[in-house]
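Re: that backbone. Tokens:
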């Protein structure tokens, strides 16, 4: 049972026998530095990818939308976006992992522990639950989610279907799952323990969506991030969270865009989505109960590991302060915001490499 495993996972797996032998007299320092190294690496990768996207996005030849998507839409500047995804989210992590002792590209996808059909089914069950929750939020407080939709500016059917068929699976779900679950959670679960690794990634995922408003982040984004993290932890690969992420985004596009794009049909679209979600959730009620048990196990594991909380909080605040300090130092030297973000990410990368070699542990090769 995953909940029992989470509850018993108090001490994070260590890098190697040599690392333990060198640092056995000071386990607190050893574990703190281990977490700090991982957070600097992941934060540096995120900033470098963001800086690359902003830099390429500014090139004149990239300022064209795809399939008529409006300027505010997430898939705008397709060339810049795909470049950032390929280089910043796929090639950069794999390259750095190779420097740190070997990490195959397939590690980003994870190692699936259940059949593909069961993973897809689990993803659909989670998507159904998240869709029903988002519809409840839209009914209870539409001002939480509707401003995000209006900012996209989608008013025509081609735009809506481009969002459903392209943006939902490829422009948002796939790169985010590769980075947050396949890369971030894969590393942090090994460094911080599965429970704290999941919570750290969920928090980072939520902060990355802070532009949607804090009400949306707290009530919609963070619960979804925890559910996607539980899916990844339970199945071992990004397939299930990718399916859940894709289906949830597509349902959100259809429910919020139906009334605008198809006047008079919005109510029927929402009713069909809710009926479909309820049927999927009922059919997968055993998986849903298992997921709730996993969530309770996660809560118990976090509550019982105060040492882990101290280490994670200290490493997290240190890495964020380091990034802000470096960015501030670069401000008078590099006037361009995109360049400062990119260079800050690369400096964080360098710091993680220095810490890694000072520790003398090739922990990348020991990933499960």
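Recovered sequence:
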């Amino acid at each position: 049972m995953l909940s029992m495993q989470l509850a018993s996972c108090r001490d994070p797996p260590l890098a190697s026998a040599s690392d333990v032998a060198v640092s056995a007299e000071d386990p607190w320092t050893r574990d703190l530095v281990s977490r700090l190294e991982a957070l600097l690496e992941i934060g540096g990768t995120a900033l470098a990818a963001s800086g690359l996207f902003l830099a390429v996005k500014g090139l004149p030849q990239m300022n064209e939308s795809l399939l008529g998507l409006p300027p505010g839409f997430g898939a705008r500047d397709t060339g810049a976006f795909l470049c950032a995804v390929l280089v910043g989210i796929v090639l950069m992590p794999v390259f750095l992992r190779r420097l740190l002792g070997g990490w195959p590209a397939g590690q980003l996808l994870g190692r699936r522990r259940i059949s593909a059909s069961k993973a897809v089914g689990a993803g659909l069950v989670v998507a159904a639950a998240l869709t029903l929750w988002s519809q409840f939020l839209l009914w209870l407080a539409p001002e939480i989610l509707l401003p995000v939709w209006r900012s996209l500016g989608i008013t025509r059917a081609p735009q809506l279907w481009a969002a459903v068929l392209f943006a939902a699976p490829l422009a948002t779900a796939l790169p985010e799952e590769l980075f947050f679950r396949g890369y971030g959670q894969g590393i942090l679960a090994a460094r911080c323990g599965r429970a704290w690794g999941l919570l750290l990634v969920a928090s980072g995922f939520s902060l990355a969506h802070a532009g949607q408003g804090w009400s949306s982040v707290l009530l919609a984004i963070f619960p979804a991030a925890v559910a996607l993290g539980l899916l990844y932890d339970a199945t071992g690969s990004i397939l299930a969270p990718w399916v859940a992420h894709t289906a949830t985004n597509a349902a959100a596009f259809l429910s919020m865009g139906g009334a605008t794009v198809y006047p008079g049909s919005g109510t029927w679209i929402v009713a069909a989505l809710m009926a479909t979600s309820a049927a999927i959730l009922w059919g997968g009620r055993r998986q849903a109960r298992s997921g709730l048990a996993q969530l309770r196990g996660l809560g118990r594991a976090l509550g019982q590991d105060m040492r882990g909380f101290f280490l994670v909080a200290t490493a997290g605040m240190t890495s964020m302060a380091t990034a802000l300090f470096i960015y501030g130092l670069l401000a008078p030297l590099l006037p361009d915001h995109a360049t400062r973000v990119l260079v800050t990410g690369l400096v964080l990368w360098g710091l993680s490499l220095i810490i890694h070699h000072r520790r003398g542990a090739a922990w990348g090769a020991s990933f499960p």
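Residues 1-25, 62-76, 361-368 have pLDDT under 50 and may be disordered. The radius of gyration is 21 Å.
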